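Quick illustration, no need to memorize.
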Amino acid sequence: MAAEELKDKCRLKDSMIEALADELRDLERRGRWSAHKVLRELTLYPNPSPVDFNRQTLARYLNNEPLDDFDDRDDDGKEYFATNPLGLTIVRRVGPDSLLLKWLPIADPKITCYEIHANGLLMQRIMSPGRSKALLHPIDLDKKMIITLNALSYDGEKEESASVVYKK
């Protein structure tokens, strides 16, 4: 596997881990979960053969579907609600340096704005919670990138997050 492909895979895994960690942190704040027990078990009982998660295997795992022991195929590009709750989609390429994005509007009154990141860099802040499309530009469309949409509440807390991968 080429170094750049490995970096892309790590970025995607990091975004999945971040989304799950944010959810767990929120549950802990509400007193519905304790991180101490899980963290202790992670250090005491390392898994000798963990599942190699991508969005496909994560969605199957969360939906209690069987996982193939040696399913190391690349992400199939489909949208999985479990890992894309905002329905973030790349509609099309626009010109030499832009992408048109769309997502599902959120009816939550706590949402005040959206942020769009490309490979971890903040590209846009959309201050209208009713919007569900954006033109992401200027970006280098010759490179593969992970595009992330964050829905933020009035206090700046991330309420929802979704990521998609752009491949040339």
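The radius of gyration is 17 Å.
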